[in-house]
Amino acid sequence: MKRNRKLAEKLITFGIVIAAFLLCKILIGTGVMSRSLRGQLIPICVYICMAVSLNLTVGISGELSLGHAGFMSVGAFSGIVAAMWLSKGVGVESQLHCLLFAILVGGALAGAAGVVIGIPVLRLRGDYLAIVTLAFGEIIRNVMNCIYVSLDGSTLRFGFINPGLPGKILLNGPMGATGVKKMASFEIGFVLVLFTLFVVLNLIDSRDGRAIMAIRDSRIAAESVGLNVTKYKMMAFVTSAVLAGMAGALYGLNFSTVAPAMFKFDTSILVLVFVVLGGIGNIRGSVISATLLTMLPELLRAFSDYRMLVYAIVLILVMIFTNNPKLKNAVGRLLPRRGASGKEAE
User: How far apart are CA 189 and CA 184, in angstroms?
Assistant: First the structure.
């Protein structure tokens, strides 16, 4: 019964995403969706992937990471370089092939960065881990401010604090990437969301996922039965970094100009807000909260200068209501109790 219930919850999550995609396509086809909301579709897909991947670290592994924007920036800039090299250096005309290649490269390099950061960081716990991941996120952003990349024919040339490179400049230090050919599409964003959900949900239900959650619940008990704590924490952290890098590559190729300043500490906090508001460890909640909170500032545009104030008030009210015991009890009475249904089944 428990396995069937988990499968049903997975199918409901995938069904919600697929239904939302079909609804958006219908609204776009009929011309009902405004241009401003159409422009939010790819960022919504990106932030869903970011929230779900961070929830793997924060909710499932139980480690507070504040440097998720750093992995996103690695994926964004490496994806842009990969796409520009493949399209202009190699001469591949298919934008789909260039975009998929960029997403794979962005995920791979972000995963490599996750390994480099995770080896020293995951030996820490609690607030110390949060502070160090925050520092690494800022280090990555500042390193991106110093990197210059040019395309000389079919050869990529790299420079550190050296803007005088031959060929066409792809990354120009603090100015970032300019003149980027926009390749991102809503359809690929939808596929990336499904892929992220597939990876995270299956990891949670796997043997490795149960080991990760056992370490989260009691590190001492997990070590006493022979679980390799560092291995499983690294698995969750690197998987989260890879998914964030893939989302970053899609995000970078959605704009003509991408600067390192777009991936500041604020971005990491925004993604963490999605996770907390949707429920720590609740993957479906991360999908819903990332969607609603990404759309909310655009929907509040009619309030002009007061829209971010209204946005903040909405966040505060939602957090108050979701942490209200009386409200939780009222909702619990409306929903069937899992424990009771399980006993009846037995």
Answer: 8
